[in-house]
Design goal:
This protein is mostly beta strands. The chain is built from no helices and 32 strands. A six-stranded antiparallel β-sheet has the order 15-16-17-18-19-20, with no helix packed on it. It is rod-shaped, with a radius of gyration of 51 Å. 16% of the residues are buried.
């Protein structure tokens, strides 16, 4: 023999398993084979390499297989953000069909979008959780930084953007719609009609509509749909008033739904005001009629009662006539000129024959172009005794303007069966200047119906010769 006998070749892993003997051939794949003497070494650890740049980049398998590379668009930082380490994708990332990343509108502008057409994105906090949109600075405070939520349409061609607040069933929602530079707020409810919008402040807060243009006008428009009626209501639990536009250039004020109405006609300079009793006033009035230039005596010394039945230009001097009280069932109006300005504090009459069938009502009326107009206030005077009787209780504040024409109107508060008022002798009394012929006497204008109260608006029907009852006023 030329040498010592060698044991058969044994091949095994470092831990002894698997192993085999005798082995006549060793094949090396994906590793390095080295032989030193009788020892053959197979190295499968691979060559030592350095990670790809840049620093902090996430390494990923590249081409050819087995090599690694990195990108500055996908990095890792151990600088805490909100208490955690951060994986940073510079351009964005897809999570299923949800893309999070840049929107291509400039540095710092990011977006979350669905990668599918008509896709829906839902952000849903658990139970009573909330979704916050907040802007903060490095210090964590919001003093100088605004938080904004913008709804932007994907086109610049004038299409509208919409923000909707929905319920879970999606059958009703509030909608903020921006189109053609106008914002529309609406409520849509497919389950029930006539859904409304409430604007409510906290505590004593105020709702304001402002224009930020320097010296610009602010305009509030209530726009009804089609031929509908624009209505503005002011109300609380116990009172209400509303304004309505029911006809072109006519403004209606109504005392709540179905209440009395005043209509202001601004279609022309002579449009006028229509009152609840359908009468129309077309000229401004201060309560009286045309002015009377001569100055009548004011209060002198202790003489403080103005004898409006006797004063110029309609009065007289003889006091011997009694006017039958029953004639005033159809109330009569007599003109007079206010001798001074002020509030009426007392009204007086002279009872010629007493009666308990009715009280005498003496009212002060404004002048409506030469005839009695609207009731300003009245006194209720009992006729249970004869002589001068005065009443200081007036139904409303009656303010007179000096040298202005008014009317005192006499009537009764019940069916009149007896009684008489001391009046001026018609032979010594000025006529009202209206009649059917050059002869005859006419001292008053009558209302259009028999009444047991003074009408709010006097409706002149005829002229009459009923003598002028004595009457006095305290003014001021």
């Amino acid at each position: 023999m030329s040498g010592p006998v060698q044991t058969p070749l044994k091949v095994t892993e470092s831990d002894g398993s698997p192993s085999g003997r005798p082995i006549t051939e060793v094949v090396v794949s994906n590793g390095d084979l080295s032989i030193s003497g009788v020892v053959a070494t197979v190295d499968t650890t691979g060559a030592t390499t350095s990670p790809a740049t840049p620093a902090d980049a996430i390494q990923f398998n590249s081409d050819p297989a087995g090599t690694f590379t990195a990108s500055s668009d996908l990095t890792y930082t151990d600088t805490p953000h909100a208490g955690t380490d951060t994986l940073i994708s510079a351009n964005g990332a897809y999570l299923g069909n949800l893309f999070v990343g840049q929107n291509g509108e400039g540095t710092g502008n990011q977006q979350i979008e669905s990668s599918e057409d008509a896709g829906i994105i839902t952000i849903s906090p658990r139970t009573t959780g909330e979704v916050y949109i907040q802007n903060d600075n490095a210090a964590g405070d919001l003093t100088d930084f605004d938080g904004r939520l913008s709804i932007i349409h994907g086109s610049t061609s004038g299409n509208a953007a919409t923000l909707r607040l929905r319920n879970l069933g999606l059958d009703n929602y509030a909608q903020f719609y921006m189109g053609n530079n106008d914002l529309t707020i609406s409520v849509i409810d497919t389950a029930a009609a006539n859904a409304g919008i409430d604007i409510q402040t906290d505590g004593t807060g105020v709702v304001s509509i402002k224009n930020d243009e320097t010296n610009g006008d602010s305009e509030l428009v209530v726009f009804a749909n089609g031929t509908g009626t624009p209505i503005v209501k002011l109300e609380n639990g116990s009172m209400a008033v509303q304004t309505i536009c029911e006809a072109n250039k006519k403004f209606t004020i109504e005392g709540g739904a179905g209440g009395d109405t005043f209509v202001f006609d601004v279609s022309s300079a002579t449009g006028g005001i229509q009152f609840p009793d359908s009468t129309i006033q077309t000229t401004a009035a201060s309560g009286g009629g045309a002015t009377f230039n001569p100055v009548l005596p004011p209060v002198v010394g202790s003489a403080d009662r103005h004898r409006i039945a006797l004063a110029a230009p309609y009065g007289g001097t003889a006091l011997t006539v009694s006017a039958t009280f029953a004639d005033f069932q159809t109330c009569r109006g007599y003109p007079f000129i206010a001798p001074t300005s002020g509030d009426v504090t007392e009204i007086g009459i002279v009872v010629g024959t007493l009666t308990t069938s009715a009280d005498c009502l003496v009212g002060i009326y404004s002048d409506n172009t030469g005839v009695p107009g609207s009731l300003m206030g009245f006194a209720d005077i009992e006729m249970g005794a004869t002589g001068s009787i005065y009443q200081t209780s007036i139904s409303a504040t009656v303010t007179l303007v000096a040298q202005t024409q008014y009317w005192f109107v006499v009537g009764g508060d019940d069916t009149i069966t007896s009684g008489a008022l001391t009046s001026l002798d018609d032979d010594y009394t000025c006529d009202i200047g209206l009649g059917w012929s050059p002869s005859g006497k006419r001292f008053c204008i009558t209302h259009n119906a028999s009444v047991t109260s003074l009408p709010a608006t006097f409706v002149p029907t005829s002229i009459h010769a009923t003598p002028r009852p004595l009457a006095t006023l305290k003014i001021g």
